[in-house]
UniProtKB/TrEMBL annotation:
Gene3D superfamilies: Beta Polymerase, domain 2. It is found in: Cytoplasm. Functions as a ribosomal silencing factor. Interacts with ribosomal protein uL14 (rplN), blocking formation of intersubunit bridge B8. Prevents association of the 30S and 50S ribosomal subunits and the formation of functional ribosomes, thus repressing translation. Keywords: Cytoplasm, Repressor, Translation regulation. InterPro entries: Iojap/RsfS/C7orf30 (IPR004394), NT_sf (IPR043519). Interacts with ribosomal protein uL14 (rplN). It comes from Caldicellulosiruptor changbaiensis. Belongs to the Iojap/RsfS family. This is Ribosomal silencing factor RsfS.
């Protein structure tokens, strides 16, 4: 949980919008948690990705989505971070797809 808290702090300090943590551990084997956030423009998405990569509290296995910076996925293995441009977040609506996943309250 410390890793999640550190990631959320980094995102918050860089002004990520609407940060949500979902506990998906009982619903799938792909990860234990999703962290979802958004940014209002491509430059902000890129800045969030750069900051996470620079200050990451754990080893990143891979980063996907840098081609367009519309939806970037940062894979930590047990945690998957989704950084969305706000239009893509609205369109894909992961929170709706994973409606059965409990939200985890994180105090920053």
């Amino acid at each position: 949980m410390e890793k999640i808290l550190q990631i959320v702090r980094i995102l918050s300090q860089k002004k990520a919008q609407d940060i949500v943590v979902l506990d998906i551990s009982k619903l799938t084997i792909i990860a234990d948690y999703f962290i979802i956030c958004s940014a209002s423009n491509i430059q902000h998405v890129k800045a969030l990705v750069d900051e996470i990569e620079e200050k990451s509290p754990a080893d990143i296995l891979r980063i996907e989505g840098r081609e367009s910076y519309r939806w970037v996925v940062v894979d930590y293995g047990d945690v998957i971070l989704h950084i969305f441009h706000e239009k893509e977040r609205e369109f894909y609506n992961l929170e709706r797809l994973w409606i059965d996943a409990p939200k985890v309250e994180i105090a920053i």
